[in-house]
Amino acid sequence: MGELKLDTVEIHPDSPPLATIIWLHGLGADGHDFEAVVPMLGIPKSLPIRYVFPHAPVRPVTINAGMQMRAWYDILDIQVDRRVDTEHLLESADLLRDLMERETDSGMPSDRILLAGFSQGGAIVLHVGLRYAGPLAGILALSTYMPTADTLDRKRNPANAAIPIMMAHGSHDPVVPLANGLSACRQLRGLGYDVLWREYPMMHQVCEEEIVDIGQFLLHTLDSGN
Fold first, then answer.
1. How do beta strands 19-24 and 113-118 pair?
2. What is the pLDDT of residue 4?
3. 220 counts as catalytic
4. Rounded to two decimals, what is the model's pTM?
5. DSSP strand pairing (165-170 vs 8-11)
6. Kind of pairing between the strands at 67-70 and 58-61
7. What's the pLDDT tens digit per position in 30-66?
8. For this structure, is 213 an active site residue?
9. Which of the four pLDDT bands, split at 50, 70 and 90, describes residue 76?
10. In the chain, domain spans
11. What pLDDT, on a 0 to 100 scale, did the predictor assign at position 216?
């Protein structure tokens, strides 16, 4: 991927990790965005996890009047599922794969790596995880959609045909409408993926009930060794 590398915020367990979660933030946030969520997940110390929260590159974002901010890709139109900068998206996908390679090079098996992301970050982890050539532990996709849905059927990798997926969305989300998340979920189920769908009475955010459900998904997925 050339010389561009992602800076990260990382939380390391007290004992050698048995799994890694790489968690991508949304538009305009940074790697610290979900750092405070970790203690709220209820993961026992008997399941030591390394959390990696990368910072997206800083770039101008068209729908925000060209303002410079952290973004996994430029959004060209307010209809977020229609016009995104695909070159940026693929660049960020490669950067995520670099982080995953760093983990496997350090000795973490790919099937102990779980990808998580919110909004734009969720779009990236769905894109990468479903196309990845090695088996992964799972995908957590929050308040998101699939801007590369048109290529998924051709590009998906059978290595992750049975990957556990949790999708969660706010029913009052004004940024990524609930319909976009449901559309992605339906497409995935139509292709045979086992998707756990959760919906909450919230906007473009996370809530306490959702965090509890995420913790249960992570514990079940990583404890079962999927």
1. parallel
2. 67
3. no
4. 0.95
5. unpaired
6. antiparallel
7. 999 999 999 999 999 999 999 999 999 999 999 898 9
8. no
9. confident
10. 8-223
11. 98
Q: Rounded mean pLDDT of 214-222?
A: 97
Cα radius of gyration rounded to whole Å, the chain: 16
With contact defined as beta carbons under 8 Å apart, do 36 and 52 qualify? no
Percent of the chain residues topping a pLDDT of 90: 87
15 by DSSP, 3-state: which? coil
110 vs 124: CA distance, rounded Å = 17
- Per the CB < 8 A criterion, the answer to whether 204 and 175 are in contact is yes
223 a catalytic residue: no
Q: What is the CATH number of domain 8-223?
A: 3.40.50.1820
- Say which residues have a Cβ less than 8 Å from residue 159's Cβ, sequence separation at least 6: 132, 133, 134, 135
Half-sphere exposure of 199 (CA within 13 A, CB side): 10
Choosing from 74, 119, 127, 143, the catalytic residue is 119
CA dist 179 to 10, 81, 182, 212, 221, Å? 33, 10, 5, 24, 27
Active site residue: 25, 88, 127, 204, which one?
A: 204
User: Which three-class secondary structure state does DSSP give residue 60?
Assistant: strand
